[in-house]
Model the fold of this input.
Amino acid sequence: MGKLIIAGIGPGDRDSMTIAVEKALNAADIIVGYTVYADLVRADYPEKESFTTPMTKETERCQIALDLARQGKNVVLICSGDSGIYGMAALVYELRGETDTPEVEILPGITAACSGGALLGAPLTHDFAVISLSDRLTPWEKIEARLKAAAEADLSIVLYNPASKSRPDYLSRACDILLQKLPADRPCGVAHAIGREGENCQLMTLRGLRDFPADMFCTIFVGNSMTKVINGKLITPRGYPNV
Done:
């Protein structure tokens, strides 16, 4: 019997990958993943057999990884960012069910909230919420309720999957919801193409964010009532100088 490791590869560059994940990929018989993510690691592991599936084929991808491990292969199923934050870890456990075979191990990675926050400064030093704007698996009504709750709780907010070709206006819709509770001049930031070619970040207000042309490579940061810009960096204090 082989083993299945679900590994978060971080934002995409090898320097941001954990040592544990790199060791797992070196020891793997086969690497399984979404096509785009597999392409990020293929050049570093050219001798490895790989299996990929496109977007919307997550269940098939995870089932194949489990089947390969049951056949005696050491399999690494890769996820961008962290394997348990909008990743495949939970789905693998669901598909494996109450059995103990194959052996499954989860290796964490750096999620975009962390890597994007580091680009922008330190926007998540206090409590925060992470919300995906994709309604492929979550009804928009539930996303809207979560946005309202996060704003009412004065949390810093990180938005994943802010827009796509089929959802070009979702970020503006989310901003309209937040603007019902938050001031238009609330400091915000966008991290784009984190760890990849063209990496960049921008600061703006919530009003400006509403009309920002975001895509799926953007991670959005909305500050709380304490967030401010210091020397070009987005900072959310926790209050240490006041202790």
Summary: The chain is about 30% helix and 25% strand.
